[in-house]
Design brief:
single chain; alpha/beta; Spore Coat Polysaccharide Biosynthesis Protein SpsA, Chain A; Rossmann fold; 2 domains; seven-stranded mixed β-sheet; six-stranded parallel β-sheet; 13 helices; 19 strands; 23% strand
Length: 426
């Protein structure tokens, strides 16, 4: 097995989403805690989107209280998501819930995450340590200052976990961030009871005899379990337009093709290079953007190939022409990903984020939180939101589909206008 820090081998995640949210019942009555509304979406939405952006492709949702609400949400908002729901008929606590959910896990290792916590961990690093150390359970640890709500985790210099402190005031320490990678086979060697706590009965009691490791990551963390932090999440998880002087060579620019780079062909597809017409100012715009962004990648749905109206060779010829003209004008396209499927639920077809994951696998340095998606359609804006990037909508007369304003950070008349705004920091 290649233990590269840039590879993501673990593709499955268990989300513990059956909590009642007792401490939030006055604020969020009659809802599972993971479904508490935060900045226009259920909290679970942010967890799914973040894990997708990290390369997780299959989800197992451990449900209990009001599981129907979660199931309805998943069916309506994530129709193409690969997921399974495992439902508790009686409360099993966290350990019992994980044990039950493991029956639906295919792989040897699985990510486990609490449904009321968003810890934006670097899963590549977590996975690397887990596999390199041959760990049974690897915890993501969040460093904190001046806290008493959480107990601290004690570990050795090489990351081995040797103890858990009770909740008390501490000036500093590392807390259990509620994100784990678990070795399924090793965990199930124990004949666990049906109902038990993963934290106290497994982690705390077994840390002296089992191989548990921790990875300290000082990254974004929010736990909505109490009203104060729930209120804080409302502000922190909003999407805000970016400052025009933010993008630099560590950023990635994703571009849709038709309607952004070239003129849309009315009620049809661009079948050959002679039909490919650059929009006014596009060549100059991409030349300017090439000096601002570290990587520029085109992501485009091309259903015409899937319908048999044109060939892959025809598409390649169009793209060769496009890239050559852009380079001659002083710009560049670093790579291009396309989806020819006619199936709207295909994982690579926008708004599903498959093409983004393919790009990240090829270029592991891509950080979706430092990326911009420019498109002219609702699916482009949703694609951007699905990977956690910022979004720029190019106004288009052709597409009348209603676009959710919350999915758009900036609206421009053209790619040229967007480049001009960035160049002049307006």
């Amino acid at each position: 097995m290649n233990l590269s820090r840039t590879s993501i081998l673990i593709k499955e995640a268990i989300i513990l989403a059956g909590g009642l949210g007792t401490r939030l019942k006055d604020t969020v009555p009659d809802l599972p805690k993971c479904m508490a509304p935060v900045a226009g979406h259920p909290f679970l939405y942010y967890i799914i989107r973040y894990l997708e952006s990290q390369g997780i492709k299959r989800f197992i949702f451990s449900l209990g209280y009001r599981h129907d609400v979660v199931e309805t949400f998943l069916q309506s908002h994530f129709p193409s998501l690969d997921y399974t729901c495992v439902i508790e008929t009686a409360p099993l606590k966290t350990g019992g819930a994980i044990k039950l959910a493991l029956s639906s896990v295919v792989g040897e290792h699985v990510l486990v995450m609490n449904g009321d916590t968003l810890f934006k961990t670097d899963l590549r690093e977590l996975e690397f340590v887990h596999l390199h150390k041959n760990s049974e359970c690897t915890l993501a640890l969040k460093p904190m200052l001046q806290f008493e709500r959480y107990g601290a985790v004690t570990s050795t210099e090489d990351g081995r976990i040797i103890g858990f402190q009770e909740k008390k005031y501490l000036d500093s320490g590392n807390i259990n961030g509620g994100v784990y990678i678990l070795n399924k086979k090793k965990f199930l060697t124990e004949d666990w009871s049906e109902v038990f706590s993963f934290e106290s009965d497994y982690l705390q009691k077994e840390c002296s005899t089992r191989d548990f490791f921790g990875v300290i990551q000082d990254r974004y963390f929010i736990d909505i379990g109490i009203p104060q932090d729930y209120a804080r999440a409302q502000d922190e998880l909003k999407y805000f337009p970016f400052a025009m002087n933010e993008p630099d060579n560590t950023w990635t620019l994703f571009l849709d093709r038709d309607g952004v780079i070239n003129v849309n062909k009315d009620d049809s597809y661009v079948f050959k290079r002679s039909e490919f017409v650059f929009k006014d100012g596009t060549l100059e715009a991409i030349a300017q953007l090439s000096g601002l962004f570290g990587r520029i990648i085109v992501v485009t749905n091309q259903r015409g190939v899937g319908k048999g109206l044109m060939s892959v060779a025809d598409l390649a010829d169009i793209h060769d022409y496009m890239k050559s003209a852009i380079e001659m004008a002083g710009g560049r396209i670093d790579d291009l990903f396309y989806c020819i499927s006619t199936d709207d639920a295909h994982p690579d077809r926008k708004p599903s984020p498959g093409m983004a994951f393919r790009a990240k696998e090829k270029y592991p340095e891509i950080d979706f939180s430092k990326a911009v998606m420019v498109g002219d359609k609702a699916v482009d804006m949703l694609w951007g939101r699905n990977i956690g990037s910022l979004t720029v909508l190019i106004r288009s007369a052709r597409f009348k589909t209603s676009i959710d304003p919350s999915s758009v950070d900036i609206t421009c008349d053209s790619l040229f206008e967007f480049a001009h705004l960035l160049q002049h920091n307006e």
